[in-house]
Write a sequence for this structure.
């Protein structure tokens, strides 16, 4: 089975966030990037589990500049067989999805996996756009995936229970918590990643549909008031007079 796993970079959660150019651009100075956790922990690891059971190859793909090679090498260290980097700035979800879909069209993948969203934009758009471009069935937010011949059986958490769906391969799936468990690359994998193929592909021409007007930082957190657990009157008074309903 040929599996394509889409990965993206996200700032480490400890990174200090700031904006430049009149708040129209993210300031990357001093930011440490990681593989988007949903892509790494769930999509990539589940792809590797399928490969270990059924055989085949796992290719990771990202859209980004040469600086992104470091996160690609980590994906290779975890166990991916090869990697592709579309040499372009991922300006928005549509642009990114079209670039990935154009590569996938000529390589006959049986399954395309993504994380459910990125932790920096939380858009959850790319996977659906890839499926539309490839004219493949799409299942979002899957928490379990089993392969039965040419059919996928998937579980999705819905309000009040679980939804079980079946789709025919090839298909696109976005992966949520429960799909797999995080893997830590070992020394053998890290060494092997240095020699695994990383193909750099030129981007195709795509009309940009999104313009970023500005970014706004959230309001600073207010100070925390500590109330003596025995002083219920003060707590009730504060809840009535100062607490804000969000």
């Amino acid at each position: 089975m040929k599996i394509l796993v889409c990965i993206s970079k996200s700032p480490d959660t400890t990174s200090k966030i700031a904006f430049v150019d009149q708040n129209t651009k993210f300031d990357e100075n001093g930011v440490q990037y990681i593989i988007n956790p949903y892509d790494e922990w769930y999509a990539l690891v589940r792809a590797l589990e399928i490969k270990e059971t059924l055989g085949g190859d796992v290719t990771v793909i990202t859209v980004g500049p040469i600086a992104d090679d470091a996160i690609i090498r980590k994906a290779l260290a975890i166990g991916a067989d090869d990697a592709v980097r579309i040499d372009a700035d991922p300006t928005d979800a549509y642009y990114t999805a079209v670039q990935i879909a154009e590569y996938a069209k000529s390589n006959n993948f049986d399954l395309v996996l993504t994380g459910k969203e990125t932790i920096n934009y939380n858009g959850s758009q790319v996977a659906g756009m890839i499926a539309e471009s490839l004219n493949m069935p799409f299942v979002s937010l899957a928490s379990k995936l089993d392969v039965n011949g040419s059919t996928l059986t998937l579980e999705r958490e819905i309000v009040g229970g679980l939804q079980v769906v079946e789709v025919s391969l090839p298909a696109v799936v976005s992966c949520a918590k429960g799909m797999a468990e995080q893997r830590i690359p070992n020394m053998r994998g890290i060494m092997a990643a240095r020699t695994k193929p990383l193909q750099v592909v030129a981007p195709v021409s795509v009309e940009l549909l999104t313009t970023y007007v500005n970014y706004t930082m959230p309001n600073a957190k207010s100070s925390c008031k500590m109330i003596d657990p025995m002083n219920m009157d003060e707590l009730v008074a504060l809840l009535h007079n100062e607490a804000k309903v969000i």
Observations:
- The chain has one domain: 2-212.
- The chain has a mean pLDDT of 92.
- Residues 146 and 222 are 46 Å apart (CA to CA).
- The longest strand covers residues 138-148.
